[in-house]
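From the shared-data thread, chain only:
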Amino acid sequence: MPTSPAAIRPLQSQLVALFHGYLERISGMERRGEAREESFYPLFADLLEGYAELLGWRGLRVLILPRKTNGYLLDLQVRRGEGIVGYVEAKPPGTDLTKIAETDQLQRYCSAFPNLLLTNFRELRLYRGKELAARAEIGRADAGPLLDLFWAFAPPATTSAAELAPRMALRTRILADRIRERLDEDADLQGFHEAFSEHLLAGLTREGFADLYAQTLVYGLLAARWRARDRFDRRIAAESIPATSGLLRDAFRYISLADPSPEVAWIVDEIVDLLAHSSVREMLERSGRRGRDPVLDFYETFLRCYDAGLRRRRGVYYTPPELVSYVVRSVHRLLQTRLGWRDGLADPRVSLLDPAAGTLTFVVEAIRCAVDEARRTAGGGVVPALVGDHLLRDFHAFELMMAPYAIGHLKMSLILEELGRPLREGERVAFYLTNALEMEDLEQSPLPGVAALARESLLAGRIKKEARINVVLGNPPWSGHSANPGTRPDGYEPLQEKGSKWLRNDYLKFLRFAQAKVNEAGEGIVALVTDHGYLDNPTFRGVRRSLLQTFDELYLLDLHGNGKKKERTPDGAKDANVFTDVWQGAAVAILVKRPGLPKRVARADLWGSRATKLHWLEEHDVETTDWREVDPAGPAFLFAPRDAALEREYGQGVPLPGIFPVHSVGIVTGRNAFAIDTDPAELERRVGRLRSETVLDEVVRDKWGAIDKGRCRLEEARRRIRADAGWRTRLRRILFQPFDWRTVFYAEYALERPRQEVLRHLLPPGSLGLVAPRQHKEEPGALVADTLVAHKAVSAFDINSVFPLYLHSEGGLYGDGRKANLDPAFLRRMADRLGEEPSPELTLQYVYAVLYSPPYRRRYAALLRTDFPRVPLPPGRGAFLELAGLGAVLISLHLLDSDRLDRPGPRFEEGSGKLDGRRDFRDGRVIVNAEGQAFEGISQEVWDYRIGGYQVLDRWLAGRSGRALRLREIEDFRRIAEALSWTIESQRRIGLLWGAAFQGSWGQECLG
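Structure, as tokens:
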């Protein structure tokens, strides 16, 4: 602002007085012993406001920021009207600002806030970004120009999503911290937190709520900025949220229509100011013109900057557009060709729902597909009417997470404006914040948060209960640890077996929900992207049977890419997932219900790199996919190609429970960190601390929190262990993973599922048991055990069962009272074949040799994955005894008591012996630490050897990472490596004998 010459001299004297008075007050406060930095803030704020007033800078004010967060400890915010000029970071008088300027904290501030004033209340340093723009001493001539430069700052316009997203992410973290701090004092926030944790996300923590609510506010502000073309502030933001988006509007009432607390208001204003200087509409439209989803593009960029681990923790993996397009185009084509609805998705009879819509990717693509069809057949003039009369009315979506819900509403605003039919007064998108799997409506309530959720619940409930939905599509969450623990996919119970937790996987519940809706409608299509496990996993045979009963045509596209199974393409190349950072394999199920259609099940498999798969999906749909007919048959109803003759051949064998009838799954501790250890002495010390009267419950929970969950409660466990005089006798050896014996505290009051009824038969000395899974995802795993057995001892991905060889009476547990655990019918068949009943030991040895036979594993690989192995009767006594002999060798090797292991070949090189996580195999050496110390003399074949998905030597080392190996452990590792080498040789011999005995198959003469 210009100043006349006549006013310069009085102004200069006033400025001198201002600076002099300020410095006197600073010195006086120091003399009085005021050492707290915060005590000086009001003086500095008065100085800045006084200087602005003298120079005629109107509307400038300074806000002392309340309650600092851990990550950002800025002290003052300087404002001009509704806009933000910059920030002040203050340090106590006398602080060396040169040292402060070099800290990571200040560098972080400078990156985040482009106009930052650093001061120790006497010196000033002005930063523009990371550049030092000016420095001065208060009271000297250069102080005024520096403050002028600070006051005159105009925020630069943000023109790209790549630039805006990280700036918003940083501010959102600050907002989340502020919201978390306000929870105990703010009734509105408490109401939202209680409503969300009770009715949407059970167990939502304070941190989780603050994170969710902050993101929602920021995404809502982004949406509001897109709608507000000119000026933008908190009030305009609230007015830009459609009144029909009730829950978003209630959330914004907290920051815009009401008067938020100062702790929250300042950072909200900072975000609003950033958006006010950002061309949001232009940047989103520009991204859209490049063929990308502009909202999703921004959202994913934001999440990477906001919290790189958030996507993994929340399962925030968005469906590739090529896959979305394949699903939507396929639905459109089948509506035309199978249901006879000429206009496909544009047909007014279509009532569509995405029950887990995320950011509305599938619904938006379905809208585009319907509009394209209408334009092609009826002309562009029909589009506004199609949108208003059909798409807005009949295309529905649900979402559980509030942040994607906000983003989805923005996405719909973009697409509707693009189509020339924006929302009118009183209209809303049929996109509701609700749990699709919860059928009860929330009761109306005046409580903050609950009222808005109740309105959403009421509207969503009408769709769940009353609407005739004939198209359900989308990509529901895949989680074995369900976010909906109270709901079950009724109708998917397995046949003749106990329920499995994997039947509680969320995607199965959504599949069941979709099946029920289309079944109610009488005809329609379900098209869901899910985990591919249900296609051929035996646990899901009830799922497959139910789908076969409901639907007339089933199209099943297995996208593979299962990282857990390390899937390879048919030609041996690496197979990739179409989703980034996802380990489970994926599949598309497109299920058609139309009475009168011939029953058909078709399957296709897509292999290769991610780019190859996405390109294929972009170029194909259900009509151009090369399907193979599948004929599912009970009891497994596999959605996979069948070899009926091979199934009949394999089916003549005897399943393991038909040989060893008494069996159980292995021990589930529910708290491995407490109950199991590789060091028996350490476990004993840990249990001793649990018994101690002086160790508080809080200390136990902090160190081993998992002990206080499930059926084992901490208070009860401590009471019982203190009363257990023989607690040390409960420290037992356990087979934890292949060849990995550890120590377990085997007390039923400390374990989730101790399986005592069956596993007690392995406690007497000399007892043996067979360990094998009912199903598996890699090669079949099997081991013998003379100890207790954990539930995944020989199966990395599935639970294994234990078959004791002998059963001990209660009175004879440690004596001779025992009987063989062999089925009488099986023994009679063996006697017919051999001329006499075989001993229990010979039976186990024969079975063990069969399970380790390479030809057996190859020939029946697919069938072995689906249920307990079936064992052929031997062709004669000679073959039986020879195979049993090789089985005996294997059993001795696998118990590490074979004399072949007395002088193991592998050696341990000199060094500390400490494992630091390295497990690098090079030229016959397994390097185990940074020193380069290694076990040498191990072949590649031995190093790679796997049992049930476990790479044996690698997993053994991993279980002892972080400490030095003891002498006994070094010897064990050498003996295990030697045992694996002999195992490979024994399997080769079994393979040769198998070929001679069974002639490439079991042969009809062996099946009687």
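The chain has 37 helices and 33 strands.
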